[in-house]
């Protein structure tokens, strides 16, 4: 099974720890004073992924279109929201009668990445792109505690939190991507 999510340590190290620098520059994005690690972990994840950091400290499979972590407003737990590029459902591929010579296009790829159509593309042809939305709780057990404030080794805590989240998301989404045939 190939990785769905991973940390690009080499790229980060070759650029003098750019994720830690990015975290330090964006300390105002963090909220302090929560006993649960969820809020901190979600902010650390957001700072580690595009568009906040491009290319991201966290990398993902080409079928992953976006991946975010959120605090559940109902009980304060952590959940992930991941959108994946998917083939069309079988019901739409059995027959092409519905196409009616309109020239429908699906997911376009640029350098192996699935991309949204441009405004120019949308002015010329119709698109039908399937995606899957994965929303699932993530365990909190291995997350580091929230630092006491901006002076408390925030960069190390952020790296630890992002590493845990990447591992959990990989375990969650990897089997789905394998079934889709990557």
What does this structure look like?
The chain is α+β, with helices and mostly antiparallel strands. 34% of the residues lie in helices and 21% in strands. The chain contains six helices and seven strands, in the order βαααβββαββαβα. The strands form three sheets. Strands 3-4-7 form a three-stranded antiparallel beta sheet. Helix 2 (18-25) crosses helix 6 (154-180) and helix 3 (38-48) packs across helix 6.
Provide a concise account of the structure shown.
The protein is α+β, with helices and mostly antiparallel strands and 182 residues long.
Helical/strand content category: alpha+beta
- In terms of quaternary structure, the protein is single chain
Low-pLDDT ranges: none
For the largest beta-sheet, the strand count, sense and barrel status come to: 3 strands, antiparallel
- Give the strand content: 15-25%
Major sheet: order of its strands? 3-4-7
Quantity of strands, as a count: 7
In DSSP terms (H or I, runs of 4 or more residues), the helix count works out at 6
Which shape, going by the Cα principal axes? elongated
Q: Helical proportion?
A: 25-40%
**Backbone CA Rg:** 19 Å
Order of helices and strands: EHHHEEEHEEHEH
| Overall mean confidence score, pLDDT | 92
Distance between the termini: 10 Å
